[in-house]
Design goal:
The complex is a heterodimer of chains A (220) and B (139). Helices cover 32% and strands 26% of the residues of chain A. Chain A is α/β, with parallel strands linked by helices. In chain A, β4, α4 and β5 form a beta-alpha-beta unit. Classes of the chains: A alpha/beta (220), B alpha/beta (139).
Amino acid sequence: MYIIIGGGGDVGYYLTKSLLGQGHEVLLLEKGNTRYQALSEELGQAVVFGDACEARTMEEVGANRADVVIAVTGEDEDNLVICQMAKKRFNVARTIARLNNPKNELIFQKLGIDITVSPTRSILSLIEAELPGTTFVTLMTLKRAGLEILEMRVPPDSPIVGKMLSTINLPRSGNIALIIRDKEYIFPNADTKILANDEVYALVSPDGEDALRSALGTTR
Amino acid sequence: MKIVILGCGRVGATLATMLDRAGHKVSIIDYSSEAFRRLDPKFGGVTLIGNGVDEEILVRAGIKDADAFAAVTNGDNRNIMASQIAREIFNVKKVVCRIYDPIRQSIYNELGLDTISPTIVGAQMMFETLTGDKPKKAQ
């Protein structure tokens, strides 16, 4: 694949190295001269001095034959413009943008950016999963499938403790995919009983999430 | 008309003053309080300090029932992002965006954003002053 990366900070740098190592054709764009000099010493032709928001620069590096454009600058607005231009002007099939402010996820999605990655959001989810008292955490969103992966710890006082999956009123748009109990993995079927302190992993569509929460008896 | 302006530089301040004098309700956002010194002392609108691509500050500035939004910070990308937030998330009817880069301007024009490029406008006016002619459009 031909991958263009905008933003030669640490993320862009390590991404470039990893993707090159996997055998892809990669081009990293960095607009700061000092940083570019440092990068080109190691990456050579894989890095170009230029601004990925500039249409002319993107044209020069062959953006219209790129399979993926990844925007990982430190500014959300720059990442937005890089990806929008890649999609609209150069018809790039996949655009990936780094989001620094998790609140910007909605606007990025509305404007057609295929994938957004928010390090803040990812770390927050992991922290939430560790907090006592939190029972329900969204781990990941599978955008193309339109599904979310949720993790839930079943509290001892939950109404579903001791019940078989077949007797719990699960929404059609949800599916309990995996239960972890005492460090053992269980792929549940209809007869599987839920026990206290089970870690339940569910796949659900975003509108099914509330129905799933009420079926499993949690409000949080 | 209720209008939210992002950016109180020279253009933002001048625009805010003009609109205020014409009787419109103006809210203006800038991340530096010094910028508001550019406003006319008689400015009767609201000033807010903050980052204009943050929805919270836009809401505080009244974007939910604003009739118009103008993005005139000195960053093209910030203007572009803020204008699209105004249009797509808050459904503001009239949105105007300053974009210095002519190529970016034409791309976003095609996407349906109302844009003004001082680069092009300025160059055109200078051309006319110097030559007495209007510049030819690129083919």
